[in-house]
Amino acid sequence: MVKVVDFILMKHEKLNNAPIAEAIIGIEFQPYLDITESLILLIKESLKSTFSKFEYVFSDIFTIDYSLVKSGIEDRKMKLRGAIFKSEDNNLILQILEDSISFHQTKPYKDFEYLSSKFFYFIDLIKEDVDLKPITRLGLRYINQFLFKEGKIIQNLNILEDDKNLDYSGGQNTYYYEIDEEIKVILRLGIDNRAKKQLIDIDCIYEEQSSFDFDRDKVSNILAHQRKIKNNIFFEVYSKHKEL
Fold first, then answer.
1. In whole angstroms, what is the distance from residue 203 CA to residue 138 CA?
2. Is the peptide bond before 108 cis (omega within 30 degrees of 0)?
3. Which of 124, 131, 206, 233 keeps 20 to 30 A from 100, CA to CA?
4. Where do the domains of the chain lie?
5. Which residues pair with 96 in a beta bridge?
């Protein structure tokens, strides 16, 4: 087992062909954005050089007309929450909702520098049309997939002294780590038996006691710190995978 302090400082070699299925940078904020169709169309125009496809995101709002209760009729309305923008090959995805913005890169994954630079590039474009609200959470998430041989899967971990196994259900094991006062990690181990793949989902979450304004240098430094922690967790799991 490794102590948390030592864990943050660990270094690992770089894989030439990392098994990354999806990488995500996301921010959440308060108060919510005032999402309207005209705003979404304005953002769509700003992003059209990269994202050729988009779809609206709605949420259901149910209200009851008590004069119609006996007949079992309810009034269902759809509230516009945001939109999802996708590149032609679905390799790049940008989701803009009233409470969050997330940028996704699927296979083929390039590298962290590309992921983060694109994230900041799109944020700058969005800021031309939207006044960003104070950030309450900054997340860096990597979903990895390994091929495995029959019976050769990782089912339990013992990485840190304060391992907390939160849940085991549906072939998925979930762990929770408190790295420091601001950073928490949720690690999920899953199995896709049909594809014979082991899923390793690392979600590194940064939260301060109070929200903070979007500052590129600050967000960049936090992401770099999150990446280091994510890499350490990944290579600890990967080393166990190689031992099987």
1. 11
2. yes
3. 233
4. 1-32+134-244, 33-132
5. 83, 101
- Tokens encoding 33: 């954005």
Instruction: Give, as one character, the DSSP assignment of residue 66.
Output: G
**For 211-216, which contacts have Cβ atoms below 8 Å and span 24 or more sequence positions?**
211/29, 211/30, 211/134, 211/135, 211/136, 212/134, 212/135, 213/132, 213/134, 213/135, 214/27, 214/123, 214/132, 214/134, 214/135, 216/120
pTM across the whole model: 0.84
pLDDT in tens, 41-71: 999 999 999 999 999 999 866 555 545 445 4
pLDDT tens track for 3-29 = 444 544 555 556 667 789 999 999 999
Instruction: Write out the two tokens for 115.
Output: 């992921």
Unique residue bearing structure tokens 């270094």 = 11
